[in-house]
Amino acid sequence: MVTATQQTASPVDLDTRAAIVANRDGVILEWNRAAEVIFGYSAAEAIGQSIEIVVPEEERADHWRGYRRVFADNRMNYSPDHILDIEGIRRDGSRVPLDAMLQPVYDGSGHIVAVTALVCVQTAASAA
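Above: the chain's sequence. Below: its structure in token form.
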């Protein structure tokens, strides 16, 4: 049985992984509780900001090159289950090793309009 709370909860809040949804401009649209814990920004602080708030400065040029390519080519270079080994930056400036899976969000015409990143902090097992 589905409760009223479950019906109104965003799907990104039902996962234990950080779920970050950003539009084609890299503006954060959704940010779940796990993202708050990992990165130190509340949803209210993160939503509406650039995804750059979690991308280390020296990685931003490569990040934007790949991100723009997704929208220009209307395809991801990774399968939905491909795990990327990346580094993120927290609100306090500390670095965090992450495992991330990227999934496109399509509009009704089949065009990618956003990207969802499902992220978790690497464990010793996942980093090996």
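Residues 1-9 have pLDDT under 50 and may be disordered.
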